[in-house]
Amino acid sequence: MPVAIRLSRGGAKKRPYYKIVVTDSRKARDGKFIERIGSYNPLLAKDNPDRVKLDEDRAKHWLSVGAQPSDRVMRFLDAAGIMERQPRNNPQKAEPGDKAKERIEEKAAKDVAAKEAAAAAAAAPAEEAPAEETEAPAEEAPAEEAKAEEAPVEEAAPEEAAAEDAPAEEEAKS
């Protein structure tokens, strides 16, 4: 018979109170149990000594017989010094993987290079700046002419579209 040491819930709705029981693991959570070895009241403060009451002698006996404690009961036994609980949380689990670390390093290197390029452009001699300004207006003028030429085309396009839609609407009515 597989024996477990676990919690059995009691108390009212939203006012839990648990018994620490030794039971057949195949029985229902709040069902029949072999022996009650303690209690747990989660509504009490964590430093309150009445929060967890445990009969340590009986717990040691059942552990020696082969009873398996649940996770929560294992915490209580660890706090009482009866059994050592291995931590289940893996602190390295949240660390990024090798490829993610490489991507982060590459991105940092690109950011540094971009900052250096911006600093080099800002530190360029003042003689080069006027040469760029003279070329820039020459480049903007053809762009403005191209926009002016495109505007009439755009205005004509809606009229043509309306003219094309009109015969289609007349055919649909027929």
TrEMBL record:
<feature type="compositionally biased region" description="Low complexity">
    <location>
        <begin position="115"/>
        <end position="128"/>
    </location>
</feature>
<comment type="similarity">
    <text>Belongs to the bacterial ribosomal protein bS16 family.</text>
</comment>
<keyword id="KW-0687">Ribonucleoprotein</keyword>
<feature type="compositionally biased region" description="Acidic residues">
    <location>
        <begin position="151"/>
        <end position="174"/>
    </location>
</feature>
<dbReference type="InterPro" id="IPR000307">
    <property type="entry name" value="Ribosomal_bS16"/>
</dbReference>
<dbReference type="GO" id="GO:0015935">
    <property type="term" value="C:small ribosomal subunit"/>
</dbReference>
<dbReference type="InterPro" id="IPR023803">
    <property type="entry name" value="Ribosomal_bS16_dom_sf"/>
</dbReference>
<dbReference type="InterPro" id="IPR020592">
    <property type="entry name" value="Ribosomal_bS16_CS"/>
</dbReference>
<feature type="compositionally biased region" description="Acidic residues">
    <location>
        <begin position="129"/>
        <end position="143"/>
    </location>
</feature>
<feature type="region of interest" description="Disordered">
    <location>
        <begin position="79"/>
        <end position="174"/>
    </location>
</feature>
<feature type="compositionally biased region" description="Basic and acidic residues">
    <location>
        <begin position="95"/>
        <end position="114"/>
    </location>
</feature>
<dbReference type="GO" id="GO:0006412">
    <property type="term" value="P:translation"/>
</dbReference>
<keyword id="KW-0689">Ribosomal protein</keyword>
<dbReference type="GO" id="GO:0003735">
    <property type="term" value="F:structural constituent of ribosome"/>
</dbReference>
<dbReference type="Pfam" id="PF00886">
    <property type="entry name" value="Ribosomal_S16"/>
</dbReference>
<protein>
    <recommendedName>
        <fullName>Small ribosomal subunit protein bS16</fullName>
    </recommendedName>
</protein>
<dbReference type="GO" id="GO:0005737">
    <property type="term" value="C:cytoplasm"/>
</dbReference>
